[in-house]
Amino acid sequence: MDVHSRFSRCIARLLVGVLVANPLLSTAAELAVDAAGSATSITQAANGVPVVNIATLSSNFTKSYRYFLEVRDDSY
To answer: In DSSP terms, which residues pair with 23 in a beta bridge?
Structure first.
């Protein structure tokens, strides 16, 4: 493979563009929390990094999840 061919240079430029643009676009994404009856929140650390505080699961959810696991295990 000729590394100096037009195709190889085009692929290299595309990869460089993706590697440079990916972090820039991901930091521009907005984080949002569905606040409908949820204690989950988003705060910001001292260095500016967003921190997601995940709410504790309700007892109803944990009971239904345990039931799901029991049913799933019994089906094998």
So the answer is: none
* 1, part of any domain: no
How far, in Å, CA of 58 to CA of 63, rounded? Answer: 9
pTM of the full structure: 0.38
| Radius of gyration from C-alpha coordinates of the chain | 23
CA distance 70 to 54: 25
Asked, for residue 10, whether it belongs to a domain, the answer is: yes
Mean pLDDT of 30-35: 74
Give Dmax (Cα) for the chain: 63
Domain membership of residue 63 (yes or no) is yes
Residues constituting the chain: 76
